[in-house]
Amino acid sequence: MCKDCGCGVDPNAHSHNGVVHSHEHPHGHAHTHPHEHPHEHLSAVASELRTVEIQQKILSKNDEQAERNRAWLKEHGVVAVNLISSPGTGKTYLLERTLEGLRGKVPCAVITGDQRTDNDARRLQGKGATVRQIETMNSCHLDAEQVGRLLPEVAGDGVKLLFIENVGNLVCPSAFDLGENFKIALLSTTEGEDKPVKYPTLFSSAPVAVLTKMDLVPHLDWNASACRAALRQVRPGVFIFELSAKTGFGMEAWLDYLVKLTE
Amino acid sequence: MHELSIAQALIEQVETAASNAHALRVARVVIAVGTLSGVDAEALKFLFPLVAEGTVAAGSELSVEQVEARVTCRDCGHEMPAERMANGCATCGSKNVELSAGRELTIKTVELEVDER
Hints:
Chain A is of the alpha/beta class. Helices cover 29% and strands 22% of the residues of chain A. In chain A, β9 (208-212), α7 (224-234) and β10 form a beta-alpha-beta unit.
């Protein structure tokens, strides 16, 4: 083929607009290919099955990042709590009141997760804390990498207490370590007293539980001692707060506890 | 449905193991799932082949070993099923019991097809 015009005609000499040029084709192909295939198979199959021991956590990559987050938080003197509950328990409202209560006492920051919108971050603005929203899109939980990426901008600069408000979900978030000091499970009085027994994965992994919307108790068939018993059934020794962010009932003890965490 | 994230993390680890062993393909993956891990084994089994498609683990079998939740008494060391947790230790009556099994979410073994040479 002519390298100037790409034509396949007259391989030795042809004309380009009257200019004659010659093509040299020194293609001395010597294809002798002496293939030797000494494949001596003992069996008909050239492969074998081998069992390899792994014994590793499936979420080890997340856990490793969580450990890096934990080290970062410790180095910067930040206490981090991972707030988990079903949607509508009142995590954001409690945080609003909490940030107001801690303003001027404890420098706080919030990382809040939702599938869509930055509504929560907007609600939490203007209360003296750095707030960042993570939109997880279709994911039902926060992971250690998402949180790790935000730590330097959110929790640097003298922050003492970091609230990580997880995506509203009673199951999925509890499987993902974010590097927090511990998890806090929230449960509203409207959800019924037996939720801890129905969803033991979360409630057994949270050393602290907060019962929210206590102001609604007079309107509900909700039994406080049955709820406390359900919490203790899956987590003996769990530390329980009962409060209403709306009326302020129980908020003082909650705020005192948070202040002590950072001392 | 965090099982999708878990299936993806699982396939990543299987791919690493297969690549380390220069495996031709993966035949079987064995994992342990605790009853308190928060993971639905059926959902994971459903998602596993979808995530495995196009990887060295395509067509492999996922075996799930369920691990029952158990608690251990911190005082006398007795181990018992987790349902006993609220009543305290079955042997010494201590309320000081802690979860000792049930949160597992572990990849145990992979069965790899390797070139025998």
